[in-house]
Amino acid sequence: MNILCGCASLKSIYILDRYNIKNIYVGFYDEESEKEWPIVFFTVNKRGSHSNFFGEENFIQLNEEAIKRNISIYVTFNSQYKKSQMDWLLKAIKFVSSFPSVKGVIVGDINLLLKLKEIGYDKTITISTIGNIFNDYAIEFYTSLGATRFVFDRQTTAKEILHFLNKYPMYEYEIFLQLGIGCSFIDGYCNNIYINNSPFCSSFTTRASYKCNLCLLYYLENYTNVSFKLNNRGSKALAQGLASVKLLERILNKNIDFNGFRQLCKRILKKYRNVECNPNICSCRDLNE
User: Fold this and answer.
1) SS (H, E, C) 44-102
2) Pairing of strands 72-77, 102-107
């Protein structure tokens, strides 16, 4: 099972290493970007002010720690951007991509994709959830711009995911497992009409039905081109999420049937999120249709 985790600090690296995680995604910003486009407004990426690596020195340290542990890094530049940001973005992408631990970038802005194609960017380009990978046209459009890896929106069902995996097996995919924070709505639709963590966002989404995607592991764990993605805004949430996923991985190896596995997922969701599984929005609800 491939697991990809958000990394918010060097402290997180040590937790990831303890669980033998070899793929992470991070954010980057520096003094220049902070002066013009403060990170707190999600103008550089969607990681937030306390979940990014600030400055070249910290990023160099991150690279050194990742190399020691054989960890691969993907760097998020997954916001929408103004023309005035492009020079900084290309400079930042050139800097982070110069390190051997960095395998590529996560993007969603069409103008940035066009710029990366223009300069012949030669590492992996991942399309963020804000790219709305909902159909074959989206896959084919983004691959024409150089993308080879895609993050499915949290609303994508098991049946839809299996369609993409079987039709486009040459690409890589990421699927969110939501045991920490995470919005239930479609990023690509909401992204331009609200500010993340605004009063509306935090109050409404905490009352909305929760979609964890845990039961997807049962059907997809043997796909080598799929990574299960854990968000991370803090070390405690990361450790809880990793412990849960590792538990599920061990259970899968015991040839449990789907109903038994789903019951275990429900108990884990209740323990860590204190919410009940909602079968009406379950990712696996359409497999028997």
Assistant:
1) CCCCCCCCCEEHHHHHHHHHHHHHHCCCEEEEEECCCCCHHHHHHHHHHHHHHHCCCCE
2) parallel
Bridge pairing between strands 53-54 and 226-230 = unpaired
Provide DSSP, 157-173.
-HHHHHHHHHH-TTSEE
Domain, as residue range, for 111: 2-273
Question: What's the rounded Cα separation, in Å, for the pair 186 and 163?
Answer: 19
Could you tell me if residue 102 is inside a domain? yes
Q: What is the pLDDT of residues 155-214, one digit of tens each?
A: 788 899 999 999 999 999 999 886 655 555 666 666 544 444 454 454 444 444 557 788
Q: What is the count of structural domains for the chain?
A: 1
- The DSSP result for 107-118, as a single string, is E--HHHHHHHHH
Beta-bridge mates of residue 6 = 25
Is 284 among the domain residues? no
CATH number at residue 134: 3.20.20.70
Examine residue 289 and state whether it is found in any structural domain, yes or no.
Answer: no
For residues 73 and 226, give the distance between their C-alpha atoms in angstroms, rounded to a whole number: 16
Name the pTM for this structure. 0.89
Retrieve residue 186's tokens: 């479609």
Q: Is residue 283 part of a domain?
A: no
**DSSP state letter for 231:** -
